[in-house]
Amino acid sequence: MKKILLIAFAAIVTTACGPSKTVQESKKTLKGYWTLNDISYDRPGTFNVTIFEDTSAECLEGSQWRFIPNNNFGNYEISNTSCPTGKRYFVWTIPDTGDNASNYDIMLKPTDEKMKSTMNNTGFRLALSYLSDDQLQIRQTVQLEGSPFTIKMNFSKNAE
């Protein structure tokens, strides 16, 4: 009887401690290479926006991204020759919010190529607003003149 209770307890603990099904499926879908096709805003106008405290939105458009779920590392490479080019690295995660598939985030922490934080262990929390096998939209809401301002980044998948 003790063995049955011990096995049942171990099964419950193992199941309860793992990431939700939504997080597992999202990581699997994100795995691979993506192109950041365009960046748009929630209102009309021309804005001087710096993304991830790194570069302008114009420079980031067309960049190539890679998400590696088994170690939560990733990178993006800017190829626009009018901008500071090269590879940037990050650590990413999807915080578990249960199986609420309609509202979850992705967190990115910029690092160097050895995966050491470049921003004193701080990063960015972004809304993962759309994810399919070949499309991704990430939104970042910041403050502009005292009001929320949303930056939308639209990706398409190149390969796994």
Shape: globular
Instruction: Give helix % range.
Output: 10-25%
Could you please say which CATH topology applies here?
Lipocalin
* Oligomerization status of the protein chains: single chain
Give the strand tally.
Answer: 10
Question: Can you put this structure into words, describing what you see?
Answer:
With 160 residues, the chain is of the alpha+beta class. It has a single domain (19-159), classed as Lipocalin (Beta Barrel). The chain contains 3 helices and 10 strands. The protein has helices at residues 2-17, 21-30, 57-60; strands at 32-41, 50-51, 55-56, 64-68, 73-78, 86-93, 105-111, 124-131, 135-144, 147-159. Strands 1-4-5-6-7-8-9-10 form an 8-stranded antiparallel beta barrel. A hairpin with a 4-residue loop joins β4 (64-68) and β5 (73-78). The longest helix has 16 residues, at 2-17. The termini are far apart. Mean pLDDT is 85; it is low at 8-15.
Write the layout of secondary structure elements.
Blueprint: H1 2-17, H2 21-30, E1 32-41, E2 50-51, E3 55-56, H3 57-60, E4 64-68, E5 73-78, E6 86-93, E7 105-111, E8 124-131, E9 135-144, E10 147-159
Antiparallel strand pairs: 1-4, 1-10, 2-3, 4-5, 5-6, 6-7, 7-8, 8-9, 9-10
